[in-house]
Amino acid sequence: MSQATHLHRDPTRLTSYFRGGSVMRSRSVSDIVLSAVLDVPAPSGRLMADWEREISVRLGLEPGDVEPLPLPRARARWPDYRHCVQAASDWTRAIGLEEVIATSDIALMACRGARYHHDGAQYGGAAFCNLFLSEDKGLDVHFPVSGHRIPLVRGTVLLFDTGQPHAVIRRDRGGFNAADFASDLDCTQVFLTWELPIENIDVARALGVDFDIEPSIASRLEEEQVWRNDAPMSVCPESGT
C-alpha cells in the first residue's frame, strides 16, 4: 500500500534554484515523500555475487558512498529486470504520474549507507524515484528536515524532491556514523533510480511544488543550488542539520 505523507513544518523554508531550459528558475522544495513496498523478484544469487564483486573490486565503496553500477551488464544477466521496471511504472501510474517514468533517465546504484546530503546542486530540475532491490539490512532513508524515515526492504519505492536533505542510516541510529558501515559488515544497498523532470505537470502536482517563487534571486544565479530561508544551505553529513 502506498503512503503519501506531507508534514507541515516550516521552521526553515527551502528553495531550489534550478536551470529550466536556458534560464534559472526558482521553486519550492517539497516535504512530501511518496512511498510503498512493491512485490519485486529477488535478484538471483549469481547477479548478487556479480554486484558484490563490482562493489568491492571496482567501486571500493567507503562508508557513505553512493556510486553507479553498470546497468547494461546487469540487464544481460537479469531476466527479472523488466518486472522491476514494470512494478515501478505501475506504481507511478497509480499515484498519477502517467507514463513519465518510461521517458526518464534510469541508473543502477549502490550505496554503503549515505551521508546526509541533498542533490539540488546537480539535479534541481528533477525528482528521484528509487526502487530498492536488496533485502532488509536494518537501514532507513531519513529526511531530517521533513521528519520522514522510511525502512529499506526489498521492493521499497520512494518518490521525493532532490532538494530535500536525506541519508541512509542504521535503523537504531539518529544520524550517520561511518563505523556503522565498516567493510566487514553486510550493509550495501542496490537500487534503481529514475530522474523525473520536476517541471512535468504530474510530478509537480504529486509533490506539491510551486514554481517561480523567487524570480529576482534566480535571475542573479548561474549555478543550481538549494537555499534555506535567505542563504545557500549547507548540510552536516553526520546529523543532517
Key structural traits:
alpha+beta; four-stranded antiparallel beta sheet; seven-stranded antiparallel beta sheet; 241 residues
Give me the secondary-structure topology.
Layout (H helix, E strand, L loop, with lengths): L2 E4 L7 E7 L2 E6 L3 E6 L7 H15 L6 E4 L1 H6 L4 H14 L10 E7 L2 E4 L2 H4 L2 E7 L6 E5 L4 E4 L4 E6 L4 E5 L18 E9 L3 H7 L7 H4 L6 E4 L2 E2 L9
Antiparallel strand pairs: 1-4, 2-3, 2-14, 4-11, 5-6, 6-13, 7-12, 8-11, 8-13, 9-10, 9-12, 14-15
What would you say this structure looks like, in words?
With 241 residues, the chain is an alpha+beta fold. The chain contains 6 helices and 15 strands. The protein has helices at 45-59, 71-76, 81-94, 120-123, 201-207, 215-218, and strands at residues 3-6, 14-20, 23-28, 32-37, 66-69, 105-111, 114-117, 126-132, 139-143, 148-151, 156-161, 166-170, 189-197, 225-228, 231-232. The strands form 3 sheets. It has a 7-stranded antiparallel β-sheet with strand order 1-4-11-8-13-6-5. Strand 14 and strand 15 form a beta hairpin. The longest helix is centred in the first third of the chain and has 15 residues, at 45-59. It starts with a strand and ends in a 9-residue tail after the last strand. The relative contact order is 0.25. The model is unreliable at 6-11 (pLDDT under 50).
